[in-house]
Amino acid sequence: GAVVSQHPSRVICKSGTSVKIECRSLDFQATTMFWYRQFPKQSLMLMATSNEGSKATYEQGVEKDKFLINHASLTLSTLTVTSAHPEDSSFYICSARSGLAVYEQYFGPGTRLTVT
Amino acid sequence: EDQVTQSPEALRLQEGESSSLNCSYTVSGLRGLFWYRQDPGKGPEFLFTLYSAGEEKEKERLKATLTKKESFLHITAPKPEDSATYLCAVQARVDSNYQLIWGAGTKLIIKP
């Protein structure tokens, strides 16, 4: 149980284009989803928190117009990186928390984004 | 300020050599301490949640313990497949949301 999937696992896009990453909770309903970014050999950096049906709450320094987050259902959240630049290249990981196990977060496998 | 510190940064052990990883924390009102395992290029894999001092949990060769100031992840007779980065996090309330405050991780290498 508590499986979170992400798609795609790897994506390469050209500078200036947009890319969408999907995060799904497969066997539970995720009332809250989180998006993280991780640089090589560093710990996870929280980008935003989203509750189903509500606007995402972005961490300080994260551009909400660049990183669009939609949490339209209890099993799906999407992160769209708009007008991507090479500095957006990173490892993006989503995480989900159910309403039942209030404090436990389960993570997806991550998406490696490379912007050329 | 809520803070999590993990030590050591890296640990090299021989197969079968038991040891412990440390996670010390300061948080106002602990609502859970979490251990995760992360392999290169993968998302963190949930291992344990501990909620109160004195609590212990076990899974195969791993055992997590919790005091009021720190948590230990004990690894008994490790195997090469236990090599990974082990992350510790505490649940903290930030504004109206609960968030995980992360340690920097301990990279564990088990040599055959």
Write up what this structure looks like.
Chain A has strands at residues 4-7, 10-13, 19-25, 30-38, 45-51, 57-58, 67-73, 76-81, 90-98, 105-107, 111-115. By secondary structure, chain A is mostly beta strands. The model of chain A has no long low-confidence stretch (mean pLDDT 91). Chain B has strands at residues 3-7, 10-14, 19-26, 33-38, 45-50, 56-59, 62-66, 70-75, 84-94, 97-102, 106-111. The mean pLDDT of chain B is 93. The A-B interface holds A 2, 4, 6, 32, 34, 42-44, 46, 49, 57, 91, 93, 95, 102-110, 112 and B 31-32, 34, 36, 41-46, 49, 87, 91, 95, 97-100, 102-105.
Overall morphology of chain A: globular
Strand content of chain A: over 45%
- Summed over residues and divided by their number, the pLDDT of chain A gives a mean of 91
Uncertain residue ranges of chain A = none
Percent helix of chain A: under 10%
Low-confidence blocks of residues of chain B: none
Topology (elements, then pairings):
The complex is a heterodimer of chains A (116) and B (112).
Chain A: E1 4-7, E2 10-13, E3 19-25, E4 30-38, E5 45-51, E6 57-58, E7 67-73, E8 76-81, E9 90-98, E10 105-107, E11 111-115
Parallel strand pairs in A: 2-11
Antiparallel strand pairs in A: 1-3, 3-8, 4-5, 4-9, 5-6, 7-8, 9-10, 9-11
Chain B: E1 3-7, E2 10-14, E3 19-26, E4 33-38, E5 45-50, E6 56-59, E7 62-66, E8 70-75, E9 84-94, E10 97-102, E11 106-111
Parallel strand pairs in B: 2-11
Antiparallel strand pairs in B: 1-3, 3-8, 4-5, 4-9, 6-7, 7-8, 9-10, 9-11
